[in-house]
Amino acid sequence: MKPEYKIISNLIEKNAKVLDVGCDDGTLMEFLKTNKNSNIRGIEISKEKVQICISKGLTVIEGNAEFDLKQFPNDSFDYVVLGQTLQAFINPEAVIKELLRVGNKAIVTIPNFGHWKVRLNLLFKGTMPITNSLPHDWYNTPNIHMCTIRDFVRFSKIINFKIFKSLALINENVSDINNSNLIFKNLFGELGIFLIEK
Amino acid sequence: MNIKQNIKTLIVEKPLKLDCGQTINNFPLAYETYGSLNNEKDNAILVFHALTGDQFVTGINPVTKKDGWWSYAVGSGKSIDTDKYFVICANVIGGCMGSFGPSHENPKTKKIYGTDFPVITINDMVNAQINLLDFFGIKKLFSVVGGSMGGMQVLQFISNYPDKAKTAVPIACTSSHSAQNIAFNELGRQAIAADHNWSNGDYDSKNIVPDKGLAVARMAAHITYLSKKGLQEKFGRKLQERDDLKFGFDADFQIESYLRYQGSVFVDRFDANSYLYITRAMDYFDLVKQFNGNLSDAFKNTKAKFFIISFTSDWLYPTQENKDIVIALNAVGANVGFVEIESDKGHDSFLLNVPDFLKALKNFLDKSYAEKHS
Description:
The structure holds 2 protein chains of 2 kinds. Chain A is α/β, with parallel strands linked by helices.
């Protein structure tokens, strides 16, 4: 299980209605169902992953978040979770707006492109960075809109949504991000986890 | 054909008001069951058959002596596991396997109904079958499942009886028959009507059968159940038992021979008038219109858990039409899952050995059943 799943779970109240966008094999969904008694639904683009979810008894819709979120009415869910996929969308701005339309709150996690390893990689090698969390080459990566933790904070001001809580994951340890430590967290955080609201 | 001895029949005494305005009562509803009903009576699955199906879902059909139409999916250890579930399937009214249909005798005229039989709708079919629940003492079905016209019955069933099923699995279907669907059905009906033997539906009294027209109807329909790719891979331009073209109109190509065979075996087991009535019922199916343009309203009162399945190569009831049902369900916050299964086998995929489909159906049912019993 990915280390951030517990952190995401801690941000979610019990008995809430939750949509996991890009739910993968349903690991987070199962975790939330068991630990938070969530009324949970998933949306997943891969047929194989959907099959795995069905075999776990999870309610999942095969679909593409970029096009298929529009079928949900406003405020259908208490929380909408988007794990490490914002950077793969053609239009991340539209996706964020859809998340916040469909859900009262959204939890978005982003692999931090500002991490020192990524920076060093580009600085010394002069090639596009390849790390554990970003294992693809530039020509076959699904990640077409990489951003840093700092970029995401700036993004919230530009397109006008509130960040309720922001956390950084460093060596499986979680810590708060605030204005005074943002530069530091942006250098050492592998993952940014944000609880956001309209 | 003496089929009566192999057919279980429920005589429905309660009057049923049909959509056409007529009321029927004391009519026969032929059904079959598989597996056994548990003490709690909560393991029953009502399976709805498609256009040319019947109540003999699995095992050897006692009338045709061939495998039941859903032998791949229903049986011991299969997707719809008869070791676990009590499977009920009824022949639709308007059909020709024992349920009240156009080949039955009209008590007023002492002749078979033929085209005097009332026009039947999907709604009527479902309202007839609800009587099976009372008959078996079942308060709530574990599931309603069906593909194609069977899927339409699933949707109509949940809409009419929102608290009578815990889960619902409409497969490869639509909420509203499209112009293309109607067009193909009309082609079939006109093929039957163009057969002189049809005699405006009165062929029985003349002891003749419009077998040529019915065979053509079946051939045309059969093409719509397959995909171009599937046909190409199976038949291509392969010749039928000959080395070269014969420069005539015999079946030179294997595909021609195959279609002719499909047509010829169909007329042995199916009644031409039933074909007219059932295709009409499908054409009249428009759940969207029943709810004044808002399909979601059909499902607003149900707590049933839905699982919608479509197939990539199904161009008769394409994925988008299945997704429209998903969208309507999501709009009212229903519990709905959806998967599109990769298959070259066209609309017929749901009847065939398509492992991804069979696996998904089994997993959905078994996990949902386990949830209720944990």
